[in-house]
Amino acid sequence: MKKQINWWKWAFIVLVVVLVVGIGTVVWRASAPAPTPAASRPVNPGDASVTVELNRKQVNALSANYLNKFLKGQQVKYHFLVGKQYATLTGDTKFLGAKIRFAINFVPKRLDNGNVLLSAKGLSVGRLNIPIKFVMGYIAKNYNIPDWVKINPRKKTVLLDLNQYSKHLSLKYSAQEIDMSTGRFKFLITVPTNN
Question: CA of 183: how far to CAs of 76, 108, 129, in Å?
Answer without folding.
Answer: 29, 12, 31
